[in-house]
Design a protein that fits this description.
The protein is an alpha/beta fold. The protein starts with a strand and ends with a helix. The chain contains 8 helices and 12 strands. The structure holds cytidine-5'-monophosphate (C5P). It is an enzyme of class 2 (transferase).
Length: 245
């Protein structure tokens, strides 16, 4: 079967500051979403890309994609569907647009525009080798603390530390995450209500874990970082400049 990539791009990107939805913000003059689509289409394994647009922005995103066509010889098909109120809901809506011949699915954040094609290919290869769920990940630079969040009247007061997980056992996970299609669809259907009740997952592999299905990690890449805060835009443009040099 063929491989598709679903790109959730319906987020507002509040942490990046006010303005255009994050995926439509430019990096060196080209919208982040376009970089992300190209990163998926660059893999010879990927023959279909489903872009999940803001719920009221599908027409605008379609126009943007038409203004930034893939290379002439690239046969990758690009579809656009409207997204939902959470990342999980957006991915579920994207999965509904897959054609019948797709057996492997990547899910890739529009907010990770610079992932190298070798990382994409490594994820696809691990799924083709039989893993139902594969995530690219890196060791952590920072030590991580679990805290007791302050709420209500106590909001803003220092938060008590509850524990320190052993850093060597932790990984920061990236995208694209790769899945056997049936496994990913089953996970999204089973836990769709959880997302609506605020108990959704922040990544797709998290849903597959809840199914009780094994998830494995392959090496991620530092250029697959997520553009979340303003400083990340500076870093992303520096990475692009270095690639051109
Ligand atoms: O908010 P976060 O950085 O976790 O978003 C990760 C990805 O999920 C982004 O590409 C964002 O556009 C997407 N997203 C979405 N639908 C939402 C919220 C986020 O497609 N409702």
């Amino acid at each position: 079967g063929r491989t598709a990539a679903v790109i959730p791009a319906a987020g507002r990107g509040v942490r990046l500051g006010p303005g255009t939805p994050k995926a439509l913000r430019a990096l060196n003059g080209t919208p982040m979403l376009i970089h992300a689509v190209r990163a998926m289409a660059a893999s010879r394994a990927v023959s279909l890309v489903v872009v999940v647009a803001p719920p009221d922005g599908a027409a605008e995103v379609r126009t943007l994609l038409d203004e930034h066509p893939l290379a002439d010889h690239d046969p990758t098909e690009v579809l656009v569907v409207p997204g939902g109120g959470t990342r999980q809901e957006s991915v579920r809506l994207g999965l509904r647009a897959l054609t019948d011949d797709i057996t492997t699915v990547l899910v890739h954040d529009a907010a990770r525009p610079l992932v190298p094609v070798d990382t994409v290919d490594a994820v696809v290869a691990a799924v083709h080798d039989g893993a139902p769920a594969v995530v690219p990940a890196l060791p952590l630079a920072d030590t991580v603390k679990q805290v007791e969040p302050r709420t209500g009247d106590a909001a803003g007061e220092p938060e008590p530390v509850v524990g320190t997980p052993e850093r060597a056992l932790l990984r920061a996970v990236q995208t694209p995450q790769g899945f056997d299609r049936a496994t990913l669809v089953a996970a999204h259907e089973k836990f769709a209500a959880a997302a609506r009740e605020g108990e959704g997952a922040t990544d797709d592999a998290g849903l597959v874990e809840r199914l009780g299905t094994e998830v494995v990690v392959v090496p991620g890449h530092e250029e697959a970082f997520k553009v979340t805060r303003p400083l990340d835009l500076v870093l992303a443009e520096a990475v692009l400049a270095r690639r051109r040099a």
